[in-house]
User: What shape does this take?
Amino acid sequence: MGGLSAPLLPISNLFESNLPPINFDFNAEEIFSEHSGEWKSAASNDLGSEKTLIPSEENKPNSLNILSIIFGLITTIFILRFTWNLSLIYRKVKVSDFEKQGKYSVLISRVNDESFSFFNYIFIEDEKNEITLEYILTHEKAHADQLHSVDLIIVKILLCFFWFNPALWFLKKEIIQNHEFLADKAVLKQGFERSDYASTIFNFCRSKRTSLASSFSFINTKKRITMIYKHHPSKTKLLLNLFSALILFAAVLVFSSFAAEKSNPKFVVLLDAGHGGIDPGNLRHGILEKDINLKLALALEKLSDRKVEIRLLRDKDEFIDLNQRLEIAKTSDADLLLSLHLSAGDKHGVQGFYNPESSSAAESKEIAADLVAIFQNKASKINEAKFIILQGTKPSVLLEVGDLANNENLNSKVGQEEIARNLFKSLKTIAENR
Assistant: This one.
């Protein structure tokens, strides 16, 4: 055959054909260079020379991917197993006709091949011996009361994802054993005889257990019986427990103290919008001081944050007697009383007032100076006054934030918000420097 059919001949036939020998010149170094090490050729000049194919790094199996697949498969199996066990208990709860005993739902039936509890649902094998039945029921109620099902669910979920950790399997074993010790202790507290109860454990020892449930299947029977007859823990263990508790308490105390030092408490300001109701305050150009004071207070309250909290003494147009305001301030847990007012004069500037006879006069004067300084007004100053509102024991400042003659800024929302922002900025600085 020839022509176009030639390429279809088997390669073995090609060597059997009576063709003249053909020599091919290969440069091993050039082939290696062109393929970046994917191919290695033996040093030979004829077609019959042997070539060795070396897989590149890209073609090599990725061990990390294989491990990831194995981990995913095993984890999936554990999750499915956990879900299946949970569904078995759920179905058993749904179809069972329980007897209510207080908060417990109890099912005593021959259908139950073992006794166990899941939260407040208790399943017990039918037992002719009433004393034994009482032991088992008390034991399972103890599991329910102590929420042992929660512990088992948590450790089972952890094992779904950390099944490769032997410490977790050991922890699971210890948790289950400790559950049994605690339940046994609860039974004995009911006044049952130790010897009778220990005998019951020995006779009813089983290896069967419902996953996710706390059961009366007595694992490590010897240890449990030993614990039953053990009246008091050893002195060494008591000392170790006491020492551990002291270390833990000290750590918590140190951490709490450190946290308290790091976190500054919130600075609370009781804001008094001067006048109100039948008391209009100053009047200029048809503008009432009481209305502007309230608007400024409401704007300032909106700026409250985690560091500074603004509380309003009045949040609407109402009349509150000065003595009543003072009483409110005295009973408040606020750190500062700030009373907002306006003057009726012209170019009066921001004025701060404090009571020099107050027990907190020095701090009040300092706060008044800080509040006034934020407005950067040359006409502003600090004044002494014995206003009723300033006669409390906590730091108290009366602040005239402007004059009604300059009503363009005070009567506009933009101007009021600007004043509120300046005041709040100053209050934050005061809070940080306390």
